Amino acid sequence: MATLTLSGIRKSFGATTVLHGIDLDIAEGEMVVIVGASGCGKSTLLRITAGLETPTAGTVRIGGRDVTPLEPADRDIALVFQNYALYPHMTVFDNMAYGLKIRRMPREEIRRRVEEAATLLGIAPLLHRRPRELSGGQRQRVAMGRAIVREPKLFLFDEPLSNLDAKLRVQMRAEIRRLQRRLGVTSLFVTHDQVEAMTLGDRLVVMNQGRAAQVATPMEIFANPADTYVAGFIGSPTMNLLRATLAEGGGAATLAAGGSIPLDRPRPGPAGRALVVGIRPEHVTLGGSLPMAVELVEPLGSETVLHGTLPGGEAMTVRVQGPAPAHGGTLPVSLVEPLHIFDAETGRRL
Amino acid sequence: MNRVLAERPLEGAASENDPALRASRARQRRGRWLAHGILLLGVLIFALPIWITLVGSSHDVNTIGRGEVPLWFGSHAIDNYIAAWERGGSAVRNTRAVPAGTMLWNSAVMATLIAAGKIAISILSAYAVVFFSFPGRMAFFWMIFITLMLPVEVRIIPTFQVVVDLNLTDSMAGLVIPVIASATATLLFRQFFLTIPDEYVEAAKIDGAGPLRFFWDVVLPLSRTNIAALFVILFIYGWNQYLWPLLIITDTSLETVVVGLSKMIGRGDAQNEWNAIMATAILALLPPVAVVILMQRWFVKGLTETEK
């Protein structure tokens, strides 16, 4: 167990910069999830932490020790790969024991650790099998086991669930979380799936184009997204983002779609300042002055998602409990609380 | 394919008396006869020369000397094989005759060393080219690749000069070392190594395995089937070496069987001992066949159980 500190991590491949200075502090035993769209640099950040890539600038510290110049094997970490990377010609036991054998650990100790981890993961009966004789979920467990037997200071997960089917993914997600809590090992988990991120992380790092857009707890990010990117990325269906301008005095916003809405507290700036007003689909209330032309109704059983457009052509999504309300093609809606107000130019929360 | 179609129970189809069913069965039967006929013809074309050689090796020297081509065994098989194996023929006058036993041994050692040497050298150079980045990596790869375009005959004079300068003529080393470098095998191993996922390399890095350890523990076991396949091809290539041994070996104790066989034919005025020649030819056939049969089991097994 240890802390992980990344400071000023930059990475360029030739002329393209993929990481623009990332700072991150992970406390002992904490699980932090890096989430972002593909190409945002999240995997590169993980690989730099693992030592598989060298940063262009910045330092990586594990447990206070600067490990930036060290080889992956000397960093006391374990990495779970997306495609598991189990050696196909070795049995499950050998796969899990390989790293320990190289470290010249006594045979008895290796056997004890592997058997312990296998029991913990419920793969003890599979120890003599080859990876190709295992199902996806079992391979995933073996990959976890290979990480656990090392008893590392830091677990790194590189989208380990994305090769599993939906049902297994949910199951393994819970299992990883339980295991991580039980072992108390500091962990860094990379995923592009926001649900995975929300459920797994003590804290999330939402990455956008090589920058950390926001680092906070899942609920904090959900309740107070730092910018329009985070607002649109976290939450499903995604938050409605509507163009608006600041009214005189800053106490209200005038929507491009028509109508004016009061703000919870005045925002600074001259009248006419361009804003983006965000509201989550579940917070839109039915009945009001905004006419939404409904285009698609998705009944999900306990709730219904309505997709439509506002006057002016902006897209709008509404989530209502129960079946879809009767409508004649146009549904009046209103935006009340909680509203998220962003600056239209910078995208930052106001 | 035809067998499968014919044997499949036609459930729910009409009864045995259905004319359409009978017609389609007849067609399938005709197709099978035709296929087997063509296959048999192929077998005959390939097997006949070997049959004639095998039969010829069991007659006395005069039968074939008279110009007969016997199609059934004679009574001298055992004598002929013993004579060929121990003395290289029965005629006392043929002073250059080398016993087939010696020649087979020389050929086997040469072919094994060539195959093993080629595999060892090429797997290591392919490993270097694929898994390491060093300046001039691609230049080295292309240099290896380009030598593919130069057949042995083109570089035989400089190679001969080098071997003479190193005093390696009339030695097993001189026979084997110059033919060991192999662009083909390097290329094949390179293509195979490119299919090994990067994650294995990274997993090994995190496990703390160094380059040689990774080669030994991961790359080599994964290459088993490729090595088996290449060994078969390269062993036969080595076994069939003709021009190079002919040039470099004058000592009869190092004579290889392919060269020795050709020397047994048309030596001076003496009558060719066709029975001994054919017995030697049959003996020369056996080791490559044995290698193919032995290794085939290996690499078919490897091909059927895909490991990636």
UniProtKB/TrEMBL annotation, chain A:
Cellular-component GO terms for this entry: ATP-binding cassette (ABC) transporter complex, substrate-binding subunit-containing
Keyword vocabulary terms for this entry: ATP-binding, Cell inner membrane, Cell membrane, Membrane, Nucleotide-binding, Sugar transport, Translocase, Transport
A GO molecular-function descriptor: ABC-type transporter activity
Ranges for domain ABC transporter: 4-234
GO biological process: carbohydrate transport; glycerol-3-phosphate transmembrane transport; glycerophosphodiester transmembrane transport
Family, per entry: Belongs to the ABC transporter superfamily.
Protein name, UniProt field: sn-glycerol-3-phosphate ABC transporter ATP-binding protein UgpC
Source species of the chain: Teichococcus oryzae
UniProtKB/TrEMBL annotation, chain B:
Membrane topology: Multi-pass membrane protein
Presence of keyword Iron-sulfur: no
Cellular compartment(s): Cell inner membrane; Cell membrane
InterPro entries xref list: MetI-like (IPR000515), MetI-like_sf (IPR035906)
Entry-linked Gene3D superfamilies: MetI-like
Domain ABC transmembrane type-1: 104-295
Principal place of residence: membrane
Gene Ontology terms: cellular component: plasma membrane
Transmembrane annotation, as ranges: 33-52, 108-132, 139-160, 172-193, 214-236, 242-262, 274-299
GO BP terms in the entry: transmembrane transport
UniProt KW keywords: Cell inner membrane, Cell membrane, Membrane, Transmembrane, Transmembrane helix, Transport
Pfam family, one: BPD_transp_1
SUPFAM superfamilies: MetI-like
UniProt cross-references to NCBIfam families, sorted A to Z: PRK10973.1
Physiological role: Part of the ABC transporter complex UgpBAEC involved in sn-glycerol-3-phosphate (G3P) import. Probably responsible for the translocation of the substrate across the membrane.
Name assigned to this protein: sn-glycerol-3-phosphate transport system permease protein UgpE
Recorded name of the encoding gene: ugpE
